[in-house]
Amino acid sequence: MELKITTLEGKESGTATLSKDIFGLEPRVDLIQRCINWQLARRQRGTHKTKMRGEINRTTKKMYRQKGTGGARHGAQSAPQFRGGGKAFGPVVRSHASDLPKKVRALALRHALSSKAKDGTLIVLDKASVKDAKTKALRAQFGKLGFDNALIVDGAEVEAGFATAARNIPNIDVLPVQGINVYDILRRRTLVLTKAALDALEARFK
């Protein structure tokens, strides 16, 4: 599979051959969904908390006599059925993270990349660099290329000027190749890979 390489100025800069093992798979929705659920679960803080019965600071004196009232025999006012009492089975501080094998994560990433290639929303960029770190100029270049909702993945390091100019543009994400992930790939309409990112991905999955 071959794709044309473009520059930020909109000019062609040759062609790139994409590996079938990375970009030529038939996307599996179940794998991609498992990986996204794993990512979002790890992102949750898990700091929600309600006070249980034993954490309520209320009197433990018996509310009224044991017999003769015709009602239930209640003790402490911290019981869940009373106003101001503890919460029964409320949320506690915990981790929402689950385990997902590395092989499954790697396979899900390849299927996410293949889905972009299949949909025709994968673009190969010559390099992500600008002379002047100006958001206005970079936004104009993105507009000509049709990058209105895109994830741009560069090589091992993103050029500081390019990252600075792109960070204030809405719906544009810039990541180094080490940070590429299934969720960010699918949450943006277009995936833009630089030549350096393409080489790094092929070396990673070799």
Q: Quick one: CATH superfamily of the largest domain? A: Ribosomal protein L4/L1
- What is the ordering of alpha helices and beta strands? EEHHHEHEHEHEH
Low-confidence stretches: none
Helix content percent band: 25-40%
Radius of gyration: 27 Å
Estimated structural class: alpha/beta
Shape summary:
elongated
Strand content: 5-15%
Quaternary: single chain
CATH class of the largest domain: Alpha Beta
Q: State the separation between the terminal residues, measured CA to CA.
A: 17 Å
The overall pLDDT, averaged over residues, is 92
CATH architectural category of the largest domain: 3-Layer(aba) Sandwich
Written description of the protein model:
The chain has 206 residues and is α/β, with parallel strands linked by helices. The protein folds into two domains: 2-44 and 99-204, Ribosomal protein L4/L1 (Ribosomal Protein L4, Chain: A, 3-Layer(aba) Sandwich), CATH 3.40.1370; 50-90, no CATH class. The chain has seven helices and six strands. The chain has a six-stranded mixed β-sheet with strand order 2-1-3-6-4-5. Helix 5 links the parallel strand 4 (150-153) and strand 5 (172-175). Helix 2 packs across helix 3 (102-119) and helix 4 (135-145) packs across helix 5 (160-166). It starts with a strand and ends with a helix. The mean pLDDT is 92.
Attribute tags:
alpha/beta; 2 domains; 206 residues; Ribosomal Protein L4, Chain: A; 6-stranded mixed sheet
Describe the structure concisely.
The chain has 206 residues and is α/β, with parallel strands linked by helices.
